Amino acid sequence: MCSRVLRVRGQAEDSGLQDRGQWASKAEFLLAVAGQIIGLGNVWRFPYLCYKNGGGVFFVPYMLFLVVCGIPLFLLETALGQYTSLGGVSAWMKICPLFAGLGFASQMMILHSCVYYIVILAWAFFYLCSSFQMRLPWSHCNNTWNTDSCRGFDRHNMSDLSENATSPVIEFWEHEVLGLSASVDRLGSVNWRLALCLLLVWTVCYFCVWKGVKSTGKAVYVTATFPYVMLLVLLVRGVSLPGAVDGIVYYLKPNHTRLTDPQIFFSHGICLGSLTALGSYNKFNNDCYKDCFRLCLLNSSTSFIAGFAIFSMLGFMAQEQGVDIADVVESGPGLAFIAYPRAVSMMPLPQLWAVCFFLMILMLGLDTQFVSLEALIMSVSDLYPTLIRRRHWREILLLLVCSVCFLIGLLMVTPGGLYVFQIYDHFSCSGASLLLLSVCQSVAIGWIYGADRFSNNIKAMIGYQPLCIFSLCWRYLTPAVCIGTFGFSLMFWSPLTLANGVTAPRWARAMGWMLTLSSVSLLPLCAIYSLMNTPGTLQQRLCLLCRPAQDSTLTDEHLYTGTHLTFDLGTKKPKDPVKDMV
User: Angle at CA 95, nearest 5°, toward 89 and 97?
Assistant: First the structure.
């Protein structure tokens, strides 16, 4: 499959095939990429990591990782898609067939993320609908799901409550929304209200991707810009609250002792293949080099500013309750569905701020979801263009993928669904897996294909040479930092602990590792498959598979002598691949 001849610009040879499509304007590309990379993690993960790992000191390793790994890999993936005009799988099959597994592994990760990531949006939609009530249901203890241990938090000191007391926001989250069971072994029946929310979100995603780049390009005008309006509104409101300054100081206060935590390196994740697919819709001469800097700056700036909006609210909540800010800070779903709802319930006009916040969460997650879905469908379409790009087969494939993901996602809207969600989140797209893909990408471009050769390809598109630091990163710095970070993650590895301190049973951990292996195992499996199905000796096979696919045909004379000339895609200068490999 890796020896298949793929078209450089993806144009259909058969008039019966539908056109692959391109972005109608540069703005569509920028908004689509912004929607993909700026998601829920910018709001609920980055601020927490910044606070947890040293406040202002956190920006030192963050910027180091961004410059050495984030920006070079961002440019690598975007330029690769733009140069080949192919999706994540076909681009790697074309540029370096031996590493075709990179494309398959990244698409498998996207498929896993499509299953569980959208469940967050179903939760957010449930909260959004609940925000239109006259009195927010998580602000008081007079609901049918509240227990005798429930204690309100309306402007009194929470430190005076007993240890057994629970807050109405936690009981709303665990009893009304999730119906949380005591263990992962008790999944229970499907929560039909959450299932309906999940179905509605999947329906929106389907029609956003329905017509390919044409519908996606139009949808991002709303989904990528609206969160910034809401974030600005929440930021202005947050900094005007009493206690906001204390929260912001707590967010940025330097703490040098926290720098030993290796999790500081996981705040900028890529390598999911989406950037390659989005870049493939660009015109050949688009300046992806400058776009890379703009988008990475936008991503980091959004994360930084979101921290002010979040911690100003948390500072207000801590002052209202008379507790330390550390007692109210949470990460992930705990921030979006417990800490922040509790904060807005203490403000005037709480319904307004709750609607703004959950609309922002929905839009942030929605564009990440459907852009990832578009990248997955386009990768499959590029693999089988004569089949998928005929009549309505693309829409049928999209419907099939959405339906299967929806059915699997129903497991996560059961009483034990939160545990399944956490297992998916921890194992399917883990930091260690992304680091492994980062190393392989750097090796494939920096050493096999050639960093200088790839820089020449970028020059052929944009008209000037990228900075030499990029070649240095692809060859040495990026793989070195990623390998070092991977080693840190192994040193500080700890068993997965689920919600409410529940320890994941052995079968759940086994299922998690199967999710991990379902993607990363494709790297060696595809390489072995390609080696077994390529003619010649082992050395000849390696030479063939380390060249672009369009140059991977050998004559009998080449097989006999073991030599074959290939042409640099940028300079058209003949090379001896065996000599280049040495």
Answer: 70
The response to whether 551 counts as a known ligand-binding position is no
pLDDT for residue 554 is more than 50 = no
Question: Would you put residue 85 in left (φ > 0), alpha (ψ -120 to 50) or beta?
Answer: left
324 is in an annotated binding site: no
Give the whole-angstrom CA distance, residue 349 versus residue 351. Answer: 6
Please say whether the dihedral angle defined by the alpha carbons of residues 422, 418, 113 and 126, taken in this order, is positive or negative. Answer: negative
Count of Cβ atoms closer than 10 Å to residue 579 Cβ: 8
pTM above 0.85, yes or no: yes
User: Residue 379 annotated as binding?
Assistant: no
For the record, the structure tokens of 452 come out as 């200088």
Helices (runs of H) and strands (runs of E) counted in the chain: 29, 2
DSSP string, 474-515: IIIIHHHHHHHHHHHHHHT----B-GGGPBPPHHHHHHHHHH
pLDDT tens digits along 422-431 = 999 889 887 7
Alpha helix stretches (DSSP H) within 241-339: 244-252, 274-279, 288-321, 333-334
Instruction: Residue 43: name the closest of 465, 340, 315 by CA.
Output: 340
> Is there a binding annotation on residue 255?
no
Cα separation, 272 vs 281, whole angstroms? 17
Helix (H) or strand (E) holding 575: strand 574-575
Phi, psi angles (nearest 5°) of residue 504: -65, 125
Q: Which amino acid is at 160?
A: D
Residue 134 is given by DSSP the state S
Whether 558 contacts 573, CB under 8 Å:
no
Cβ burial 281-293 (10 Å sphere, 16+ → b, else e): bbeeebbbbebbe
- H/E stretch holding 384 reads none
pLDDT, tens only, 138-178: 988 989 999 888 887 654 445 445 566 788 999 999 999 99
> Three-state DSSP class for 416?
coil
Query: What residue has token string 């206690």?
Result: 243
Q: Is 556 annotated as a binding residue?
A: no
**Contact criterion met (CB below 8 Å) for 328 and 318:** yes
Say which DSSP state 263 is in.
G
Residue 286 assigned as binding residue: no
* Beta carbons within 10 angstroms of residue 392's beta carbon: 10
Q: How far is it, in rounded angstroms, from Cα 545 to Cα 496?
A: 39
Distance, in Å, from the CA atom of 484 to the CA atom of 64, rounded to the nearest integer, reads 13
Question: How many Cβ atoms from other residues are within 10 Å of residue 162's Cβ?
Answer: 7
What is the per-residue pLDDT across 103-131, written as a single tens digit (0 to 9) for each? Answer: 999 999 999 999 999 999 999 999 999 99
Nearest in space to 531 (alpha carbons), one of 546, 521, 511: 546
Long-range contacts of 404-410 (CB under 8 A, 24+ apart): 405/111, 405/114, 405/115, 405/118, 405/202, 406/198, 406/199, 406/202, 408/115, 409/115, 409/116, 409/118, 409/119, 409/198, 410/190, 410/195, 410/198
